[in-house]
Amino acid sequence: MRLSDRLQTIANFIPKNTIVGDIGTDHGYIPIYLIENKISKKVIATDISKNSLDKIINSVKGTKYEKDIDMRLGDGLDPIKPFEVDTVVIAGMGGLLIRDILDKDKDKRDSITNFILQPNIATEELRKYLYENNFEIVDEKLVKEDGKFYEVIWAKKGKAYVDQDIYYEIGEKLLANRDPLLEEFLNNRIQMNEEILKELEGKETQRTMDRYRELTENIKELKVVLKKIESN
Questions:
Q1: What is the CATH number of domain 5-166?
Q2: How open is the CA angle 7-53-106, to the nearest 5 degrees?
Q3: Is 217 helix (H, G, I), strand (E, B) or coil?
Q4: Domains in the chain: boundaries
Q5: Is the pTM value of this prediction over 0.85?
């Protein structure tokens, strides 16, 4: 099976010979790929939607992968038992939802070793949650697909800190790895913020003035990170 760039990046972070829980599996492309390429010994594919889960059930039914992919209906980590998987993939949903899934059952969460996370939005809030709840970010990578940037995070239990709040928004590993998309990603963030600033000009409510100051400060911080890349 050939994966999209986003899904391939997620799959590349999964350690070999692991037992994987793919939360919100949808079509089940990742589970099939992991078994097909002998990356994982077993995959538990879960989804809250029966219609979504039926897609992978139909794809796997009658194939040699059927015995290695266990399909379960349920919300978040609910369908998985403690210590049943050592790696979990939670991708394609908002960062706040991923945070809530991890936070809902801490005992189950803490029985898992590897967390491969790909939030569509609110990555800053997710990183903050990870750092504040005894996770360390092992690696990160940017992917651009259909004109949209995606951030893929590999986290483990551990202790780590950020020196500056901007590194909740821009992962330090992206900077350390000199991610090839980071400069474009930062310029895109700066441009979006500058466009919002233009829309706020002339509006003098307390809320818009606070937002203007917040965005102006954020642009300065992003430009500092951008300068670090350009000077290396």
A1: 3.40.50.150
A2: 75
A3: helix
A4: 5-166, 182-231
A5: yes
